[in-house]
Design goal:
The chain has 281 residues and is of the alpha/beta class. Helices cover 42% and strands 14% of the residues.
């Protein structure tokens, strides 16, 4: 067993660890600041007030780019490469805004309880989780390490929705309620999909040697996945226009237009002195 440092030895151990630590100071807090600045530029709902002028917005864009570049260089990236990524991220903000607006509209149209798109953007955890995911995914595609995960983990803590930044998600994803949703790194989700709370799009095996393989399912366009369904495995493909019922455990592909349900079991006694009877429906 390794002897643990105590007293002055521990003090020196902490000093060495801090001196050798390669990541930027307070990287989590600075990542949160980057996300907040991005949100403020994507939607007026998240501004802190004021700044409704051309000069103000241009200043915010410059500050956002500088903030991102500092984070990337602090992680060991060259200034030139960091500058390329920052420019691409800033240039991609209009497209990112359109993608997120489509998500919000899809959620509004899918949920009778939603009174406006503004309500979805401000109050729906699924919209927030998707915003964080789509920001992180753009950085992930540029080969940025750690930062995308920090961004999606912010959303995970805030909403209970865990979407890996490496997942591929199409247009107009609607997430209703959303708590407990998990979407794995190699998952592929098509356009106009609806997910409800507790859905897992996960792996059948978590062995480390499978890290470079497709481990998570592919969901076709116009699929609805109801609460607490678990879709597992890289070979599991859900055909377009399918409906996956609540509590389904699915580890194989299903063709387009499928309806997959979980057989319920009802237990009851005819009389108090009789054993329980089971009915599968």
């Amino acid at each position: 067993m390794t002897e643990l440092p105590t007293g002055d030895d521990f003090v020196q151990h902490v000093v060495r660890a801090r001196a050798e630590h390669a990541l930027p100071p307070a990287i989590e807090r600075r990542t949160e600041e980057f996300t907040r600045r991005t949100l403020a530029l994507l939607f007026p709902h998240f501004t802190s007030g004021g700044g409704a002028s051309t000069d103000a917005v241009r200043g915010e864009l410059n500050e956002l780019g500088g903030h991102l570049c500092e984070l990337l260089v602090g992680q060991g990236m060259t200034s030139d490469r960091a500058g390329e990524i920052c420019s691409a991220f800033i240039d991609g903000l209009p497209e990112l805004q359109r993608e997120l607006a489509d998500d919000a509209v899809a959620t509004y149209e899918a949920d009778p309880a939603a009174k406006s798109v503004d309500e979805v953007l401000l109050a729906y955890p699924g919209a927030l989780a998707l915003t964080y995911y789509r920001i992180a995914h753009r950085l992930h595609l540029e080969g940025v390490e750690l930062l995308p995960r920090l961004i999606t983990e912010q959303a995970h803590r805030l909403t209970g929705i865990d979407i890996h930044p490496g997942a591929t998600i199409g247009k107009s994803l609607a997430i209703d309620h959303g708590t407990g949703i998990v979407v794995g790194e190699t998952a592929v989700i098509g356009d106009h999909v609806r997910l409800y709370q507790g859905v897992t799009i996960g792996a059948l095996s978590v062995r480390k040697e499978l890290a470079t393989q497709k481990r998570h399912p592919t969901i076709g366009d116009n699929v609805v996945v109801y609460a607490n369904a678990s879709l597992l495995g890289g070979e599991t493909v859900i055909g377009e226009d399918s409906v996956i019922g609540g509590n389904v455990w699915l580890t194989h592909a299903v063709p387009a237009g499928s309806v997959v349900t979980h057989a319920a079991t009802i237990q009851r006694r005819r009389r108090r002195d009789e054993p329980l009877l089971e009915y599968h429906i």
